[in-house]
Structures are given as C-alpha cells and as structure tokens.
C-alpha cells in the first residue's frame, strides 16, 4: 500500500518567520495539530506541532506572537514521497517518534501529510496492505519516553 492512497492531501503550512501565534491560529482554524514549515520557495524546512508551540511558550516565556516558528520547529525534518510504502513510513514514524510525516514532491514542497491516524483508519476501512501489528508497534514506539526538548531551559518563574 502506498502513501498516496491514504494521505491527507490538504496541507496547511506556515513560514519559519511567522510567529507561534500565527501557527496556533492556523491549527485552531484548520483543526489540525501540526503544520509543515516552509521557506520562501515553499520548500519544507521543518515541522511544528501544537506541543512544540506549548513547550516553546513555556521554555521562553512571553507572548506567542513574539516567538518565531523557527525557534520551535522540529529539525531535521522527516519526509516521505507519495509512492513510498506505508510500512516504510511506519518505520520512519517509529525511529523518529512522530505521529505525522509530511509528504513532499520531487522539489521538496509539501503535498500532503500521512499520520498514524490515517493508517489506522485505512485498516479499519478494510484497506489491504495495512497490518494491525505494524500499527501497534508504531504506536508503542511513538509513545515511549522522548528525548529532551530542544535543549532549552525553562524560564524561571517569579
């Protein structure tokens, strides 16, 4: 089974120079928990999640409108192509402990996102080639303890 058969094709991106407030607003308006971060040529340069926003606000203090997306975005970015196999993408999710992977074209521009949710829904819908054991293994790997957040220290509270 290939990614193009189950990916979410509508992708909403933010620019690395935009504020975390802009990113949070986009996620709220579009009912999504992450957004690819792009440069001025729409090439993907990172990924930002609602958790990244929350942790960056905690670690840096101040308003979300004063913190650039580039400070909180995940790098290096893990991507896939639309003709990649779902099993290969699940392996990427496991190794990088991520729920979602942007799908890019040959120019490095985002054309979709494939999430663990997309994979689980494909299985539930009876799509052939989606293994429930792989879904369980991927979820277990994603949920295991994570590494330190960006190496930042929290702002001291007064």
TrEMBL record:
It comes from the Bacteria. PANTHER family: CBS DOMAIN-CONTAINING PROTEIN, CBS DOMAIN-CONTAINING PROTEIN CBSX3, MITOCHONDRIAL. Keywords: CBS domain. SUPFAM superfamilies: CBS-domain pair. It comes from Congregibacter variabilis. Coiled coil: none annotated. The keyword Ribonucleoprotein does not apply. This is CBS domain-containing protein. Residues 10-58, 76-124 form the CBS domain.
């Amino acid at each position: 089974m290939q990614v193009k058969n189950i990916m979410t094709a509508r992708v909403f991106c933010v620019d690395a120079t935009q504020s975390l407030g802009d990113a949070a607003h986009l996620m709220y308006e579009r009912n999504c928990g992450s957004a690819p971060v792009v440069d001025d040529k729409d090439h993907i340069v990172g990924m930002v999640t609602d958790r990244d926003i929350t942790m960056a606000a905690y670690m840096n203090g101040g308003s979300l409108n004063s913190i650039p997306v580039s400070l909180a975005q995940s790098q290096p970015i893990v991507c896939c192509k639309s003709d990649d196999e779902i099993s290969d993408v699940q392996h990427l999710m496991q190794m990088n402990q991520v729920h979602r992977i942007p799908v890019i074209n040959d120019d490095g521009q985002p054309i979709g996102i494939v999430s663990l949710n997309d994979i689980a829904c494909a299985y539930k819908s009876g799509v052939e080639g989606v293994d429930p054991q792989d879904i369980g293994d991927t979820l277990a790997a994603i949920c295991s303890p994570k590494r330190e957040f960006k190496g930042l220290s929290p702002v001291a509270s007064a």
